[in-house]
Design a protein that fits this description.
Length: 456
């Protein structure tokens, strides 16, 4: 049976073939935005609104108009509709089902801030619906999903920004770090250490009534069907208003089923900058070795034997063999940030500082004019959304493209697989598969739950 969405995809591809690739996939700037408003502002919609969803939306009001919002939690949806209306003076439409946003012709782009296990399905369907995409990091739940997104970006010609904001923001400290490496200020790089923090284990989390405002089945979506679990104590501060321990809001990052723990959370930031500086954004490691690690529950054949506690690694130290004999260490210990060590010096960078003798030496021996812009590939944008919109106008991929993101995220995914199986993994960066280990390779993909397959 041919579904409406399958038919739309076929018509889209037929249009590409009929019009010619250059014209169909890369429209002229005057035809980029579906909504021909007097000030040519693009029309956006946000899918997934808690915490980071609101953060990326609120940073974008100066650049775009928001016509619609979607979330499976009616309380979160209602609160964000009010906030958007207050900020832009016009009430956005609201939906529980994101597919109603994709069906609209007036929306140019979607911003996706759902839990990780939803990213690929929504992103792929959005691109086939003719939308450009801004998706929060980490982009995927598996390495196979990354390959699929790359294929669809290439096939559709859509612009796709990944939300690794350290490439654009944090007062350009990370851009300066990359420039220091590229201009040889520490000689030949020998080692890079990414400190990404650990996390705490959970107590046993009991089955609990599903909150009335939450569509639990839709929240699970592509993930396996399980019961909702939560403890009554509420989280304070960032992520407040939700249970301190659960298998849902905020805590989803601590479960293999929905995310990858700290490895794909903070790792998606710092490993990204490390690979960028090393010039390894289009290749990968040769080996991943789990030196020390703690899984909070027992695993058998790589899978947790219980389903009532967090299961992602709480502490870890991994060695990654990178090209040119560079050793990468990913650790939950020490400062959160990146330490670069070379034959002629070392320096440390994070969101609050960049320190070390090579940095101090800039006072008397500054980087060449344009060094930061050279790293960025042009004038540095005001923020990540601005870069996304510039890319939408030029029809070129933005600073955080899917290819470089997936290459570095493969390191994070492989690190989790290595810890779950308790052994070293040899990786072929050309074939993008684990060498000589069929069991480990079986973790590179996951099957979506029936009824939540990706509509292609």
């Amino acid at each position: 049976m041919t579904t409406p969405r399958t038919a739309n995809r076929r018509r889209f591809l037929q249009g590409v073939a009929a019009a010619g690739t250059a014209t169909a996939l890369f429209p002229s700037p005057r035809n980029v935005f579906a909504n021909e408003s007097p000030n040519s502002r693009p029309v956006f919609a946000t899918i997934g609104l808690r915490n980071q969803g609101w953060a990326i939306t609120s940073k974008s009001f100066k650049f775009a108009d928001f016509a619609a919002l979607a979330d499976v939690d009616s309380n979160v949806l209602g609160a964000n509709v009010e906030k958007v209306q207050k900020n832009q003076g016009k009430k956005p439409d609201s939906y529980k089902d994101y597919r109603k946003i994709l069906d609209r012709k007036d929306i140019d782009a979607v911003m996706i801030a759902t839990p990780d296990h939803w990213h690929t399905k929504i992103s792929v369907e959005a691109m086939y619906a003719g939308k450009d995409v801004y998706c929060e990091k980490p982009l995927t739940l598996t390495i196979a999903e990354g390959k699929l997104i790359e294929k669809v970006v290439k096939e559709t010609g859509r612009v796709f920004q990944v939300g690794t904001m350290q490439r654009s923001e944090s007062s350009q400290r990370f851009l300066q770090a990359v420039a220091l490496i590229k201009h040889g200020r520490i000689g030949t790089v020998k080692k890079v250490t990414c400190g990404i923090n650990g996390m705490e284990a959970s107590p046993v989390i009991p089955v609990a009534p599903v909150p009335s405002e939450l569509d639990w089945d839709f929240w699970l979506g592509p993930a396996p069907k399980v019961e909702y679990r939560a403890l009554p104590e509420m989280r304070k501060g960032y992520g407040g208003g939700v249970p301190l321990y659960s298998n849902c809001h905020y805590a989803f990052r601590n479960w293999h089923e929905y995310a990858g723990g700290k490895l794909t959370d903070w790792g998606a930031h710092h490993v990204d900058i490390a690979c960028w500086a090393l010039g390894a954004s289009d290749t990968g490691p040769s080996k991943i070795s789990p030196l020390e690690y703690t899984l909070p529950v027992e695993h058998k054949d790589g899978y947790p034997v219980v389903n009532d506690q967090y299961n992602a690694a709480t502490k870890f130290k991994l060695r990654v063999d990178m090209p040119n004999d560079v050793e990468m260490i990913i650790t939950s210990e020490g400062d959160n940030g990146i330490l670069f060590e070379g034959t002629e010096g070392r320096f440390f960078v994070n969101r609050g500082k960049i320190v070390g003798k090579p940095v101090e030496d800039l006072k008397d021996n500054p980087l060449p004019d344009g060094a930061i812009e050279e790293v960025y590939g042009g004038k540095v944008s005001a923020n990540h959304t601005a870069n996304f919109i510039e890319a939408m106008e030029s029809r070129k991929q933005p600073i955080s493209d899917v290819w470089s993101h997936n290459r570095m995220l493969e390191i994070c995914h492989l690190s989790n697989i290595a810890m779950r199986l308790g052994r070293d993994l040899n990786w072929d960066p050309n074939k993008r598969e684990i060498v000589g280990d069929p069991q480990a390779n079986s973790f590179l993909a996951r099957e979506n739950r029936k009824g939540y397959e990706i509509n292609m």
